[in-house]
Amino acid sequence: MAKKDQTADAAVEKDRERWMARFQVRLAMQPGVDRAVVLQAVKEVTTHCADTRAQPQTAFGDPDAYAVQAAARLVPADRAARARRHNSVVDALDSVLKRAGGVDGL
What we know:
Helix content: over 70%
Order of helices and strands: HHHHH
Oligomer: single chain
Distance between the termini: 67 Å
């Protein structure tokens, strides 16, 4: 294989790895997403790209947007809603604790 081909292949592989890493992180940040959901979504993307020989960016577009779509498809609505409520309570408590930290005597 020519050096130019190796360089192009390495660049394509790096782009794929970068897309997959960003997708996984963004997916994990979605409400209700657990390890099983991330693994299932990664398997689906990997299988599709292997079968079609397409790059993830070409097949699925922006990794952030696809992470939102995958979460909506793979996470039951009630579990996502429960996670959003939990996150809002934790955020509110964190805000109160930060403000209380500035009060003398605490």
